User: Which sequence fits this backbone?
């Protein structure tokens, strides 16, 4: 109820601070009998890991995960899976100057007023570092969904600051540090270099997709599948907008265009983004999110201190000039957690999960 | 867990179908001692009511609410408040032709595959009629928030189909059927008349705002205030996109621009939309939503029946050619429910609710 | 979260006051496709109904239930089932004298201090009348469990005041007003007549049983099946004690006696009461509850008023001299609700429900 | 939802297995600003610790707790408090002989059928070792309740096997290994020595009490304070019965006796056990629990193996011949967790917590 648990039946309780001794999570509700090793989880953690290119924070965290419980002889037992990641490369002195002042665009001000106390080291609990346990839990969900239904998750960057990124092919995503679906990323390298030199930051737009979706996931009236996707995505640090399917473009569409026709071979289009009435259609889930520019920048900003007096803030520390760059694997994990939870919720009430009836032609948008 | 309850501490359990005997909800967790009458709730229901202009469905429902419990001698007692609205103007025969076929853009297909059974009369449970109990519950939340903190909620239309609607003044909203913040709505009247004549429908964009917000509402890590707002809004029928503050525009913003500076007199701007790190800043909450064109249109659409065979669907019945028109009071209610729930969640853990420290200058975007 | 919802996946949200316009509940999470009519529910309501013998309250309520939603053409649709029972025989004037004083043994004192406001008519929300919606919801759960697994629920009285009631046969229970498993209930008739004449009340002990139980229901660590049974039973008005299996007698048992041996034909005994490690064994669930004497008695009692001054309270109104008499069908319903919820929770995580492997010999205690 | 989280607003998510690398919990919802160190928690862990007398298991675990998060500069921050306890003295080879057979009275059989997989080492997840994180979390709750309201918790043994233990004084409890409220425990030492020699085990009865209780805690209708106490206690390993106040004795009481009179100086008695209508009266909470004899005994028992064949089981390993002996601090912790959660739930809805109005005379039973 205090907001650190994600999901209901496949629930992830996240703990830790950016510069505390450790971060981690407890997954409750994982089905028993699934093969699971630390390596299965490490793969996605490595995709999210800081320090892997010059365009992201240079904090060097191995993010090595330890499974503390819930796995016996290489298989899940149905009991809670606790995952532990020790913090190793904290440099808390970078934050000495902001103990008593509020960084614009950051949670400093709101944590201070909410709790009356705040851990300023690396942003404490509000740091994007806390997405690591989410990614770890998402990796477990992905494994199960892949094995059960063949469902797969992927994400890519579709805009970097002012630069729209065309979609060429999913295969390019893993070969560049931007998760961009294009072969040539020189323009983005140059853009980021200039930005870093200017001491500034930029936003990004990320597309997230689930394919091989079962039909029927999602609980009307309030806990619609798309409602929970929006909750998951908007809850990710720095996200300011979420779209499903046609998103904001649907405002200017006509009903005769937007509504996806059905044919015996499947849907003829996917403006809905894979959800009708809050329930999955079996088409690809198509989600798009807007990520704001990083608030931690070297340029001096006007602010106030805890006494309400004017002050200037320059954020040192090691930061991502575009937090959107590392967002792709996190967004995938969040989408996987939503689908996983709804798969179990569906099974509880309806007892089985449908796939591919009638045949689904999962057209892209 | 089956998705028909909204909120945790101020929870609303919604029931009913479009053409069943009644719809309604049970509110649990309302603070005791608050004056409450049916008239307090009826006001917002009337703003949402069908049949009030030629641009919306001509179904004529009085939507008279009856308080069944939780109020004694005009005051809430702290026990569940059950609200009942009888359906009176069902015309189920309009739906005879879609019992065995799926209307494109509708929940028919997904309900059928999820549950194996579906109430086709008026869309059954998936009908936007079920937003009436949400509006009723929102009215109760608004009363308490107004009395406690002076918080107020309002919404207006900012785009109708292709037509952007400029913002003139909130005072205009109540004087036209579009909830448009402009004095002259002739262009929108004409637009809708043409659309109806064409048997087509269009989308809309709605802006929702809360002013007089307390500081500190919202639970990190997952149940952020903006995450729960996104959940609430995306869960509203036909919504395909949600923005907080600068929304998708923040992608192209620089960090030096986006991050709202703080001054001793308050924030200098509100790109954040009133939320930092998932917690309210005390500034106005600024939310924008995209509503897709109504799927129920007179133009014939390609579809399939429950046997997977091709068919054509023409949706008769009485429908809103732009469901966005009546969305403003619903979106207000949803925002009020989110804020209410977080106010109680905050009080549970932190024991008090802050306001206006330091002074908040709630700039618009 | 405010305590008026029972269960998680098969959840029952209860509303109403003893003398308000109506009582009822909303069931969320019922599996779709199950035949359900009002008559199915009415049967159990009639077993609990007041006014059926001279030993219970003479308030005459038909307790006619109306299904408001969730059922289409005689089958559940998977959407919320709202049940409404209008109150018809309120006599609120009986309560005029206790508006400002606290009846000993009643919730008057605690509601007053908790909420600062209290509906005194018939005990308001704290009345045992609110068990009627619980019984109605339990009837729905029973139907599903019977159809799915053959699980059945029954309860009987095993002690009335000082009088222990021997167990003869379940078949007797329906033939006497005490739910006593004996053929001759003259002693209990006489006992109650004397008690009523004395203006006093007595307690009772009730045994509740589920047979035909699936194996594997119950969630360790905290939400054990027996933990949730204890929660359900202790939450019933006037209950002061709960036992599972051997109960308090197990304190003086040796381990060599208590632990139920397993044989290829099943368990050799059932001291466990059908639960090991919080999970059902497939044996009969055996539960026993202690019900305190009715607090509403004609004999004058010392008390205080809302100003803290001494006063005497005589409770008029129409009360059960032994609330335990009507407790049997309520306890059955509560046990059914617990088993139902755990059946769905099990299915969510583990995907199937086991029965009878290896063969279960469900010995009684 | 999978049963490993206790509480709603002050929630404890427990993880670990008896012989896994670690056990622990995540506390979510702790109010911010409370001083907290590892020593505060260690004290109660040490009271529960194995290996402290010859009458309990000789497994030697230091149970040293590490705070991983949620505390900054010695104070709680309002973010999750993760507590980690490494297992150090596992001797899993003791369990080799029960990998394929079910120990009578144990969870082996039910885990196997529920999950299809089971960690047999030390009972895995079903081990009473998992009460350690509960005790740790309870210590945090106790600190806050003591500081806020002066509420205090204590427990003692009132029966050991057939031997009733008279109540002399609370002060004796800490001076003997039985948590017995008497000066001379020689009889219990002898009893246990004989039992151990016989390779058998016995049960116990424990009394738990909270004093300095606020008035008004508890949520009707279902989440009554006593309902949640019963849930907590029955969920503790080996508990088979729970009583509040007069408990099962109330069955034979008359209403004129049972109902506690109120006087201007407070209640005249406490048959209710501190709860009326599910809400705390401000009197002492009085709870009594029945603990079954340990199932792990050296005497050979009839059982079956996973193939359904007859076998004999002798449980080696290091076990408590009376698990009730170490139950006192655990039962205290559980009661503290229930009261803590309800204190926050009350504050959420009602905004303040009452104490001592009118003066409460907390009589013992």
Assistant:
């Amino acid at each position: 109820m205090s907001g650190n648990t994600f999901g209901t039946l496949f629930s992830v309780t996240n703990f830790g601070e950016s510069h505390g001794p450790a971060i981690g999570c407890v997954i409750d509700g994982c089905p028993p009998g699934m093969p699971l090793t630390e390596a299965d989880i490490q793969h996605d953690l490595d995709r999210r890991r800081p320090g892997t290119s010059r365009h992201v924070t240079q904090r060097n965290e191995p993010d090595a995960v330890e499974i503390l419980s819930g796995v016996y002889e290489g298989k899940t037992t149905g009991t809670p899976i606790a995952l532990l990641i020790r913090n190793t490369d904290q440099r808390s002195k970078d934050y000495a100057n902001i103990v008593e002042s509020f960084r614009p665009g950051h949670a400093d001000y709101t944590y201070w007023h909410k709790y009356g106390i705040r851990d300023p080291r690396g942003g404490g609990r509000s740091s994007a570092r806390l997405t690591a346990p989410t990614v770890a839990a998402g990796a477990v969900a992905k494994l199960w969904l892949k094995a059960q239904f063949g469902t797969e998750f992927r994400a890519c960057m579709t805009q970097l600051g002012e630069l729209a990124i065309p979609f060429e092919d999913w295969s390019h995503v893993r070969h560049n540090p931007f998760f961009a679906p294009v072969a040539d990323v020189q323009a983005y390298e140059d853009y980021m270099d200039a930005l870093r030199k200017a001491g500034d930051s930029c936003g990004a737009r990320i597309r997230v997709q689930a394919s091989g979706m079962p039909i029927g996931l999602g609980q009307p009236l309030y806990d619609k599948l798309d409602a929970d996707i929006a909750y998951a995505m908007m809850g990710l640090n720095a996200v300011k907008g979420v779209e499903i399917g046609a998103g904001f473009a649907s405002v200017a569409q006509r009903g005769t265009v937007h509504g996806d026709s059905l044919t015996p071979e499947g849907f003829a289009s996917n403006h809905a983004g894979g959800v009708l009435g809050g329930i999955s259609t079996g088409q690809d889930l198509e989600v798009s999110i807007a990520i704001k520019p990083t608030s931690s920048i070297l340029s001096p900003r006007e602010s106030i201190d805890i006494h309400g007096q004017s002050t200037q803030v320059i954020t040192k520390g090691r930061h991502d000039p575009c937090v959107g760059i590392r967002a792709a694997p996190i967004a995938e994990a969040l989408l996987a957690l939503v689908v996983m939870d709804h798969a179990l919720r569906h099974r509880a009430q309806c007892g089985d999960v449908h796939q591919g009836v009638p045949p689904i032609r999962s057209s892209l948008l």
Remarks:
- The helical segments of chain D are 38-48, 108-115, 131-149, 186-197, 225-234, 255-258, 327-350.
